[in-house]
Amino acid sequence: MPENPRVQAAVAHRLGEKYEFTYETAPSIRAALGLDNAPVQQAYQRLYHQPLESIFASRTTPADRLRWAWAALAGWLENLPPFWTAYALTLTETVGVSILALPIAVARIGPLAGVAILILLGVVNMLTIAFISEPVSRSGTIRYGSAYIGRVVDDYLGRAGSIFLTVGMFVFCFLALQAFYIGFATTLQAATDIPAPVWVALLFLIVLYFLRRETLSATVASALVVGAINIGLVLILSLLAFTYLQPANLFYVDVPFLDGQPLEPEVLGLVVGVILVA
Asked: Which pLDDT score is estimated for 170?
């Protein structure tokens, strides 16, 4: 704010009318408006015939305290150094629901073979990320915030490449959405005895509601918190699974062409497909 006591006092008055906050919870607002400075306090007294302290609440409700706590957490997360922001987003946003399908997918070939394929495709994925990161970092449209990945693909690969990306992403999202709906509905059906189609319809209506709003209050902070919760749930499930550990199962191997095992394309496709998605 410019150092104009009357303007600073007026803005403070409007904030006090609209929001409820205590003196202790608003240090940045006090600093930005100079509310601890005598000229601003005197201007407020002249304009509104009451002390500036009247804009502060003596105490806040639990809901307000929760909102202020979230604001403090969000401020801390969104002001992390760029490296840690990128690292945290990459970690939390790539641990999705497909992680839950990994044990199911690799069960047929055994954990050791599953880990080997996971490492192999993980290396492929890291190389892919490196190859994508280089043109993105060199792209002026990305650097100056005027476009996203679709424009970069158009710049490097032309219109045909951009269309290919768009169609591919649409197919991927469409198929993934079916898996999410089925997993969500069948899980809740087993827990509640309410038919799966009812859960699908309910989830679909919720999605339509957010689409009609045309806005979603998602930020870097909310993405990190949701991602951290997901990772926490996966770790809890893993710990629970270890209570049923049978060491003999760790050395089970059923790999095609090993010990005369036949090739089963549907099993290999399931394993590779799920690991690639994850």
From this structure: 93
